[in-house]
């Protein structure tokens, strides 16, 4: 027998608290002299999330902390790359925003928009929502999901635990760790990776025949709408296989308080046949959905510029995203380059002033009769009738340390190893890389 839960029309509540495992960061510590770490908000298998204060603005942020060792051990590097890449390009009022990424030798830190209201799941656990309130959050959810799909991003793990509420109790989608992008679609036009949360997973994923990322997100949105209105799951059973059979057949019943219009709408979303399942555009045109709906405006791509470095940082210093590149066996640098094909390269850290490093490179280039072009703290070398190229870029890591990055094409790497590297390695300021 299904227990009827009290209806929630208004909110009063705080962020959920969690028991720690004794390995949390030190309370009050200053990360990179930019953020003061606060209490632990929550944790999962691979990350912990803390409240923190931006020391420059005083504003609250959420910091997601991940262990590099665990990422490598669980082969999650591709997931982390994808999540950073996706969050960098998404800017929507109902998607948690990524401010920056920082890293040490052992950990990666995502600095995220802070959602003071906590998980939507915590509110649903206290009772079902009214139909009007359910519709409001569903409209916000669909606006954000449509935005993601228009940019070739499919979340694939939409559920109340991944929906947060901000200070104004507006919805925010988070956790894009299982998301897919258009580039992952196989020649048959479908995705094939099995993922998601059992109670929210679409029938076509269970069938293991490939699936459309947009259609599985729509299914999950339907489950969320049902839960908001009912206070419990449409497909649920202690026996996982029994639950999967119900999902595949689309067998569910709406509670007695559900309006006929919402019942019809849910039936179209939770259609086990992806070919006849309602589309997002059809949802937006549905009379039940359009009740009180206001189209949400968000910046277009040409209005948005992602800032890799924080305002006020000294020009020429390494930005937060690049630091990740200098950690052993976890090179995520390709995420932050707009260049297409990768070329040979290597990186090392030096205590020598960048001007002195450039002087040494120029001296060798002159002896080898190479064409030299300088720009800021960068040098480009060409020779042998254009058959090779070496580009050296220098970034300040701290007041005392610089990062020297070499990229080469053609025979450039051979020239670098034979002529330039020995000179720089013999420098008293050279520091071995990680």
TrEMBL record:
EC number assigned by the record: 2.7.11.1
Domain of life: Eukaryota
Obligatory cofactor(s): Mn(2+)
NAF domain sequence ranges: 313-337
Catalytic reaction list: L-seryl-[protein] + ATP = O-phospho-L-seryl-[protein] + ADP + H(+); L-threonyl-[protein] + ATP = O-phospho-L-threonyl-[protein] + ADP + H(+)
Stated family: Belongs to the protein kinase superfamily. CAMK Ser/Thr protein kinase family. SNF1 subfamily.
Name listed for the protein in its UniProt record: non-specific serine/threonine protein kinase
Originating species: Olea europaea subsp. europaea
